[in-house]
Amino acid sequence: MGDLYSLPDDDPRQSDLQQVMNLYDGPQRELGNGDRTGAQSSYGMPEIKPRPGTVTLYRMYNPNVKDHFYTTSFSEYSTIAVDYGYKQEGKIGYIYKSDIEDTVTLYRMYSMIAKDHFYTSSRNEYSTIAMDYGYKQEGSIGYIYILVAHP
Q: For the CA atoms of the chain, what is the radius of gyration?
């Protein structure tokens, strides 16, 4: 939608790696922040209505460590994570705050060594496998529907 190379040198978007569509080693399946914002301003935002029992799920990104961070806490989103270099990407949807029929727990973990957040809906992965790789358990962030059940 726009070209980074035509921005003034002092424009902070010049160093925003999320603006580069082919930044990752594998195929990029999402638009960069600039293209997403351009499409939303041209076509509008889809209206997503929360269902009863849900809370807002926020997404952030830290370009220094290439880590996405998800939270339902507005305090975490607006202050704590920003202090650690995360850039706010806004609301991405809604997540159930309590277990309801056919939902599974979404767990969050963090590795100080890898500077990476890890999310899983597998209790086994949360309680054993990821911990073996140095991830610290941070608890449940909510409950989600999944398309394919874990074995």
A: 17
Dist CA 89 CA 70 (whole Å):
10
pLDDT in tens, 44-76: 776 778 889 999 999 999 999 999 999 999 999
The two structure tokens encoding residue 55? 């809370």
Give the pLDDT score at 131.
Answer: 84
Residue type, 108: R
| AA letter at 61 | Y
Q: What is the dihedral of CA 76, 87, 147, 100, to 10 degrees?
A: 20
Q: What is the pLDDT of residues 95-117, one digit of tens each?
A: 999 999 999 999 999 999 999 99
With residue 68 as reference, give the H or E element that holds it. strand 67-71
Q: What is the pLDDT of residue 85?
A: 92
Q: Check: CB of residue 143 under 8 Å from CB of residue 103.
A: yes
Find all residues with CB under 8 Å of 119, minimum gap 6, and list them.
70, 106, 107, 108, 109, 141
